[in-house]
Amino acid sequence: MAATIALAMIVKDEEDQLADCLASVKDIVSEICIVDTGSTDFTMEIARKFGAKIGVYLWSDDFSAMRNESLRLCTADWIFVLDADERVAKEDLPRLKALAKGPHDCCYRFTTRNYTNNKAIADFQPSESGDEHAKGFAGWFPSNKVRFFPNRRNAKFQGQVHELVNQSLEQQGIRVLDCPVPIHHYNLLKDPDRLRKKQAKYIQMGREKAAADPKDPKAHIELGAQYAEVGDWQNAASSYREALKLDPRNAIALRDLGGALHMLNRPDEAKRALQLALEIDKAQPAAWRNLGVVLAETKEWEAACECFRNALKYDPAWPDGRRYLSVAIEGAGRLEEASTESRAALEQNPRDQENLKLFVHQMLRLEKRAEARTVLLGIIEGGVKNAELFNALAELFFYDNMFDASKKHFLAAATAGLPAAYNNLGVVLFKQHLYAEAKQAFEKCLVAVPNHPGAASNLKKVLAHLQ
């Protein structure tokens, strides 16, 4: 008989999120166990449509108590814990299902991708261009916790906030293993007013947790992270300093203090905090990356290069690493070497517009337009056919008066979804004195982008030639 999986959740007023969450995992779970903590919207109606077992637990400011009530409802062999604003990608469902076929003496820790546009958050990871799971967010920062474990009645969450179940499982001899399946967390897609209230609530609970155990540096670090999430860098820095009073050699607190000080425009203090963090633990890619950014902003280019190289050493998968390194090398005056890195960055992630812009910029400075065209053509022939690549290639042909090739690729860019490329196409046609065709191109641009300033003025010029 196949092993079964129960989905365990606690919810409150999640009518805008719950259906998508449940739909993302319904094919692999045998039961959905939801504890409502005081919803006043249609959350419970949605839960019932999915056939959920429903429990009620009045909000108590104790997340562990509420989580444990959801575990009580579960009867399946395994328990999987999600929140309503989290999703599992369809392609990862078979891997989750396979976990239930494994031994019952282990549980699984997952990395949650907390999507955000706040690039200053510690461990920020840029989203890959075209990643549908990013939903338009600039990137994400990771958090790790046990979410998938055998159903044992003595499994309990602990902690009033930032509750965790792994301690009770490890006390029973259950091993913690890492699962490579990411959990996609979209907290910031919620209604802004509701999100602000939720963030304020978490900060208040974080304060209470730190006050209840003032000698716990971890509580102060967690509170600092909550302040950082809402951009309150002053209070974030204060919280990290409180942690460091208790544990002066806490590399995480030093790293995050450095990030907060950077956002407060205090570069010398930020550098010192990050340097201290790295003296304690050199294997911190986020600390190397943040220190490199601070050094680059103060134009200490060679030192920034070393930091970015170390960040890549400890995190070779850092998506923006080669681009950051290229910028620092260019700042140090070694443009040829910088272009080698920007080309590597572009070939590694050819859909990233920042990689494309940097590579083209450097190749233009080096007057290596033919080589740049060869690189872009190779990427396109390799199957990456996005509008920005076509547009950049067309511009490179235009610089060398290769108008037919330029027109071809501007048209390809416009057809691929970049209407502004019609304006560029019109410019080439105008230069060839093909005024009627140029007029049509400018008009197509203005239909798609009515306020495009270049197309409007260019259309006036071409109409004057057609009178």
Radius of gyration: 27 Å
Terminal-residue CA separation: 82 Å
Major sheet size, sense and barrel closure: 10 strands, mixed
> Do you know the CATH topology of one domain?
Spore Coat Polysaccharide Biosynthesis Protein SpsA, Chain A
How many helices? The count is 21
Instruction: Please state the structural category.
Output: alpha/beta
What would you say this structure looks like, in words?
- It is a single chain.
- The chain has about 475 residues and is an alpha/beta fold.
- It has a domain of about 180 residues: Spore Coat Polysaccharide Biosynthesis Protein SpsA, Chain A (Alpha-Beta Complex), CATH 3.90.550.
- Helices cover about 55% and strands about 10% of the residues.
- Strands 1, 2, 3, 4, 5, 6, 7, 8, 9 and 10 form a ten-stranded mixed β-sheet that branches.
- Helix 2 links the parallel strand 2 and strand 3.
- Helix 7 runs antiparallel to helix 8 and helix 13 packs parallel to helix 15.
- The chain is globular, with a radius of gyration of 27 Å.
- The termini are far apart.
